[in-house]
Amino acid sequence: MGGGDAMTSRQLLVRDLLVLFGITGWALALPYWGSEFIVSLALTCLMYVALSSSWALFCGFTRYLSLATSAFFGIGAYTSALLLERLGWVQAVALGAGIAMAVALVMGAAVLHLRGTYFAVLTFGMTELIRHAITYFEKSVTGTVGRVLTVVPERDTIYLTVLVLAMGAVALSIVVRRTRFGLALAGIGADEQRAQTLGVNTRWIKLAGFMMTAGFAGAMGAAMSVRWTYIDPHTVFNPFIGFQTVLIALIGGALTLWGPLIAAIVFSLLAETLRLQAPQIYMMTLGLLLILCVLYLPGGLASLRWETFRAWWDATRGWWKARRYEWSGDKARDKERARRQRYVL
Asked: Residue 198: which pLDDT band, with cuts at 50, 70 and 90?
């Protein structure tokens, strides 16, 4: 029995790695045959793959709802904008990740003892605090708000970096799910006090997971900042980046491996088709998908199976049959007949 389980686990690992290699190979070929629009769409998609996959790796397992993604993204973007002229491309991206992780260490030490609404509100509040602090610093010290990016790498360099970060986030998720660290994160999400009694150092596990999420967000912010010729706090610390990351992870399936990737592709296509032409419809679509997933698909899009559609079909048929029985008057007649029988008896 143990050998069969080990083989099954190994087969799942091989399958996940093959899927990852296939997606990576297809994405690598995209810049050579795709137009500028297709590459731009792929960059947005890969950005949210990295952000949502790394967010789900910590928040999905531990059930800590972090709204600080935009803070780490903005820190990485500003790091790249300030230092790219003096450092190389790889060094700027790595430093953006490192500074974001350092901020996450401080932020996590302050708020990770909280849970639920308190944790979510405080992480969002700290994000706004960082954004306003940088705005105030720029107005007071530099006399202007924002940075003009004069050094911009080639398109293929940016694309390859973003692809490595996105596929790295998915690969890390594959690995962490099979380690004691991943088991500790899942234990914290299931019952944190029980995990402590079993010897799990929950404080450091949570800090490590939070910093891991921040590192990917910071690196992605540093890599994506060069897509704009001008950045300011309102652009790179935009709360919408954090909110959409959370929505993508939840709708795709925060506890699944491929859910965030699937949802990132769906939402990137929706964003390009609806966001510019009908932004209100785009936001309504986000909200509607979230409501439908919470009510009818709690496991996210990645949990869809043929049995799911069959269960929905059976439930719909049962509902329609009950409505026909009621609307035809048969239900009222049967109730009246039963009442008369009780009266006679």
From this structure: confident
User: Tell me: the pLDDT tens digits for 229-238?
Assistant: 788 888 899 8
Residue 273 DSSP symbol: I
Task: Give the mean model confidence (pLDDT) for residues 58-71.
Answer: 91
Question: Would you give the DSSP letter of residue 179?
Answer: S
Range list of H helices, the chain: 2-33, 36-55, 61-62, 69-83, 89-111, 116-137, 155-176, 180-190, 192-197, 202-224, 233-236, 239-252, 259-270, 279-296, 306-327, 330-344
**Statement to judge: residues 253 and 288 lie in one domain:** yes
Task: Verify that 146 and 39 share a domain, yes or no.
Answer: yes
4-23 per-position pLDDT tens digit: 444 577 888 888 889 999 99
Please answer whether residues 46 and 166 qualify as being in contact, where contact means their C-beta atoms are separated by less than 8 angstroms: yes
Instruction: Tell me the whole-structure pTM to 2 decimals.
Output: 0.84
User: What is the number of structural domains in the chain?
Assistant: 2
| Residue 319 belongs to domain spanning | 310-344
Query: Phi/psi of residue 198, each to 5°?
Result: -85, 5
Closest to 73 measured CA to CA, from 231, 180, 208: 231
Strands 230-231 and 147-148: antiparallel
Based on the domain organization, do 287 and 314 belong to the same domain? no
User: Is 145 in a helix, a strand, or coil?
Assistant: coil
The pLDDT tens digits for 241-273 are: 998 899 889 888 888 888 899 888 888 888 777
Distance, CA of 292 to CA of 225 (rounded, Å): 34
